[in-house]
Design brief:
Blueprint lengths: L2 H28 L35 H15 L1 H12 L3 H28 L4 H14 L8 H26 L2 H31 L1 H13 L11 H10 L5 H16 L9 H34 L5
Helix pairs in contact: 1-4, 1-7, 2-4, 2-6, 2-9, 3-4, 4-7, 6-7, 6-8, 6-10, 7-8, 8-11, 10-11
Length: 313
């Protein structure tokens, strides 16, 4: 980052800190404590092979469809990469003052997601635990880098990402066919929703602080958005099955993430943009049109996959 960019980022962080403090207070008042251990069906679990000399995992033990298994795998391995996400936001936002308090609180809340998911999935024998651990090691060894150049881009990314993750968790639970799994993913989605509300309202303040730069950063993120699990082994094949099952696809991304987010941020209603901001807003509009066209095209592909039994929903 250049000296000018660093100075600009520092100025944005300082200007937004009072908003961070206010939103942090609101978050702490709204957040409800919950405990991962209560979502694990301990009484139904059995020992695995190894020191306990239990039963090895076999594919037939899982009652979940391949698409749901894929979605749980992507969700869990994404949540596992928390150390990299913490490093990313701590480096960008800092560890002092209200920013630092938020960074650590966010990390503490996010940390329970992987613990809860892994215990539940192991107890249900829903996934191969050996393959899962091998994939966890491979994924975390790569780390995570959003590639975003500054504070506004980082804020825009986490705003979109938290909303997308909320939808992915919620829809995975609805599709899994297990009331306990649905309760767990709904609980995780509730955390993601509160995190999204924090970042969304913070970004609304950033739009007021520097409208052109904030709309431009948002356009860059929206038009090139990738989920944080995109570097997972086999992600493309998995994401196709997940999309075909309706758990998370372009329709979900457009209708339940981008459109409500842009509407709530008031992007279309701003009258304080210069030519640069208007061009960025136009890019967002053109991207939404392209997403809609791509979604329609994929719907026919998914219909064929469902008809051929290629996704196992």
């Amino acid at each position: 980052m250049s000296d000018d960019s660093a100075l600009k980022s520092a100025g944005i962080l300082a200007s937004l800190e009072p908003v961070v403090a206010r939103l942090l207070d609101r978050h702490l008042a709204a957040a409800k404590p919950w405990f991962p251990h209560v979502y694990t069906p301990w009484s139904e679990a059995t020992d695995y092979d190894g020191p306990l000399d239990g039963e090895p995992w076999r594919a037939g033990q899982s009652v979940m469809s391949p698409a749901v298994q894929d979605s749980f795998t992507v969700s869990l391995l994404t949540e596992d990469n928390l150390p990299s996400y913490h490093f990313e936001i701590a480096t960008r936002f800092g560890r002092d003052g209200a920013w630092g308090t938020w960074v650590h609180r966010w990390t503490a809340e996010e940390d329970r997601h992987a613990h809860a998911l892994r215990s539940y999935l192991h107890a249900r024998r829903a996934l191969d635990p050996v393959v899962l651990e091998e994939q966890r090691m491979a994924h975390l060894s790569r780390g995570f880098d959003s590639g975003r150049p500054g504070v506004l881009h980082s804020l825009a990314y986490v705003t979109v990402q938290e909303m997308a993750t909320r939808e992915a968790h919620r829809n995975t639970g609805k599709a899994c066919g297990d009331p306990l799994g649905e309760q767990l993913t709904a609980r995780i989605a509730a955390d993601e929703n509160l995190h999204m509300l924090f970042y969304r309202d913070l970004y609304r303040a950033a739009l007021d602080l520097d409208p052109d730069a904030a709309v431009t950063a948002l356009a860059d993120v929206v038009c090139d958005f990738r989920m944080p699990g995109a570097t997972l082994p086999g992600f493309q094949e998995r994401s196709l099955r997940i999309a075909a099952a309706g758990i998370y696809n372009l329709d979900v991304h457009r209708e339940h993430v981008l459109l409500p987010l842009l509407r709530t941020l008031g992007v279309w209603d701003r009258t304080d943009l210069t030519a640069a901001g208007d061009q960025a807003r136009e890019r967002i509009g053109l991207h939404l049109e392209q997403v809609e066209r791509n979604a329609a095209r994929f719907r026919s592909v998914f219909a064929r996959m469902n008809a051929d039994g290629d996704i196992g929903v």
